Amino acid sequence: MKQYYKINEIAKLYNIGVDSLRYYEELGILQPKRGENRYRQYSTHDIYRLNIIKDMRNLGFSMAKIKTYLENRSIENSLLLFEEEIKVIDQKMAELQNMRFDMERRKEELLKTQKMTFDKIQVKKLPKRKCVTLKTTTNDANDNDFLLAKLSKEYEENLFAIANFNTGCIIDIHAHPCHYKDVLIMGDTLLSYEFELPQGTYLTLSYRGKKDQNFEHLYEMMAYMRKMGYEADGDALELLIIDVHETIDPKEYITQLQIKIKNADEKTPYCGNNRQ
Question: Which of 41, 102, 141, 243 has CA atoms 20 to 30 A from the CA of 86?
Answer without folding.
Answer: 102
